[in-house]
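User: I've been going back and forth on whether these two constructs are worth ordering. Before I decide, could you fold them both?

Assistant: Sure. I'll take them in the order you sent them. The first construct and its structure tokens:
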Amino acid sequence: MYIINRRKNIRLIGNEHALDDKLIFVIYKVQIKVLWFWVTIKEFNEDEYYDAVDCFRYCTNPYIN
């Protein structure tokens, strides 16, 4: 798991999963911090990276056009 972007209590992370030596896939998650733990708002597949970035951007600033 690695943090791609973080602003205050919202973060976008990437989590790698390996099925075997050759097949690795990534799941992106937008999370919000509640008290002392992180809650996943939405998960995205590796093909939906830009959707995950847009979701993160909207969560940090909902007034973007």
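The second construct, handled the same way:
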Amino acid sequence: MLDVINVTHCSTLKTDNKLMNVSTSNVICTLNPTKNNCLIDGGGPLLIQLCPNRWVLIGTASSWQDCGQENVPGIYTKVSDYRQWIDAKTGPEEDC
């Protein structure tokens, strides 16, 4: 389970004695107390459950620092910024 954190807070967290460079509005920042994203996770899904049998993709893993470390944020690209294009290619989503 991941916690979504404010991008402003995310950009202040230090990793490897460097500040994370997160300044765009098209990202979702997460924090997992046990470990963060690694290179192999690139493009991996960030999902939320809308109803009992329905999961929705809200982000894709896009950045990582200090692979597999505790309390280091993971950065995901917001899928909502590409929603219009996705719907045009796949059709609109169904209701629960």
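Notes on the second construct follow. The chain has two helices and seven strands. Residues 41 and 61 are 6 Å apart (CA to CA).
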